[in-house]
Amino acid sequence: MKYAVVIKPIVFLLFLAPSLYYFYAVYLALNGENILGPDPAQTLSLATGEWSIRILVVALAITPLRYLLKMPRLWNYRRMIGLFALFYVSLHLIVFLMFLLQWQWADIGREIIKRPYITIGFTAFILLLPLGLTSFQAAQRKMGRNWKKLHRLVYVVNVLAVIHILWVVRSSYFDALLYGSMVFVCLFYRVLRHYSLAVRQFSLRK
Ligand code: HEM
Prior knowledge:
Blueprint: H1 2-30, H2 40-68, H3 78-100, H4 105-114, H5 116-133, H6 137-143, H7 145-151, H8 153-168, H9 174-205
Helix pairs in contact: 1-2, 1-3, 2-3, 2-8, 2-9, 3-5, 4-5, 5-8, 6-7, 8-9
The structure holds protoporphyrin IX containing FE.
Protoporphyrin IX containing FE (HEM) binds next to helix 2, helix 3, helix 5 and helix 8.
């Protein structure tokens, strides 16, 4: 118990820190000092996108790591990390709407339809929303078995996020391939575990 009281706020601050840095950078930019490089809007868009995928992958890796490292306590961080993923994806979307589209509402629908990588990114965001909204214990209790089914959408979100990144990437494919292989390994682990548990249950029944 004491362990979680110390570690949880540290984990919280670690995940919050990148956003605080970028909020500070935007604050400086509004006051005439630029620390975001020659294209601040693009820097913000890339940074929030990078943090979104990193945290999504961490959230997905919790289940395999929990079993492989025999650390059941990792489970306690899943909700916080998942909500941070939603937080960074929302920031990424806000940067897109604010700095790249300058709140031109008429352009938003057109961009979503016209650019497939935006369609895919936006779909990932929409699918992530109900997961965030139902991540609380009360919702989990109320939804029963359906909660687990709904939260399987996180696999789809990760796959869509990787497709979005592969599509949007302009120069190096390194990051896209790195995140893509991490998502693949996490999903493959789950499939393997599911089948090995099913086989074990079947052989016990015989
Ligand atoms: C799960 C959701 C999402 C993730 C994980 C994600 C992640 C990323 C990443 C990592 C990049 C940088 C790719 C590179 O290295 O070049 C990126 C770029 C971009 N994303 Fe997303 N994204 C998501 C959703 C969205 C949404 C909802 C939108 C807007 C509706 C969006 C719009 C963009 C745009 C416009 C870029 C290009 C930025 C530029 O090059 O200036 N993304 N995204």
